[in-house]
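Quick check before the chapter quiz. The format below is the same one you will see on the exam, so make sure you can read both the input and the output lines.
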Amino acid sequence: MKKQIAFIGLGKMGFGMVERLLQKGWEVAAFDLAKEAVQKVREIGAEGAESLKEVAGFFEPPRLFWIMVPSFAKATAGRPSGKPVDDILEGIAPFLEKGDIVIDGGNSYFKDSQRRAKELAQKEVFYLDVGVSGGPVSIREGKFAIMVGGKKEAYDKTGPVFEALSDTPSGYIGESGAGHFVKMIHNGIEYGMMQALAEGFTLLKEAPLEIGVQDAAKVYNQNSIITSRLTKWLQEGFEKYGEELPEASGSVAHTGEGEWTVKTAKEMKIPVPVIEAAFRFRVESQKKPSYTGKILSMLRAVFGGHSMK
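Here is the expected output.
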């Protein structure tokens, strides 16, 4: 495979991926609706494109495209449908040729990924749905999880880009939709794990004893049964923002994956009470902010770069 890639979407994850690929000797042409992001990526050595047509024209077919945008966004002049991935695919469709490979590395709903794969197959273009987990910090370090769905033939061809991005071996999950399905369930599990930590530390803070919450976080993170990256980030968050978390909102935001997990579980008639309760908490926290919500907001900020407000 040629070490060339057309990259679309330069947010906190996408920019870090482009930076990583450049460090590994890849040629990158990049586009984003935000002109300042395009200029910034030029400054680190990538080719900055002013349009989807331009980013598609930098390299000769067969080409590799990586789309790294949110699954949903407010409809704007630049995003008429409110579904950025579909808008991008529509924008590059006239320039796609047989043998091209399109990767969706965002958190798309797996049924959307299945549909997109079928639509692109009609043009003899491969579509891989790729779940990425680790957050911006892990992207920069090259230590994050990659889970891939789609044609095995396309996965085998794109192995070098996954190897360049992460020192952690990528995982081929199966047919189209499988990569995003596995990432969806991953995020549902993440909701439950984060909720348990937030509830537990709320109890520690309100205990009828003098307990150092930061001390508890530190000792939990020293080879206890619940030692994990989450407890590490929890400890770091308390150290950075303080036990009262004055900068954090008690109303925690959520993206679509937790809701999709609950919806899919109901369709499959499989109970997921922990994940569902964690999702419901986030929804209800918009009207009922709490210290538990502050912990969740802080965690999302530390590992995901999300705003605590």
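If your answer matched, good. The chain has 13 helices and eight strands.
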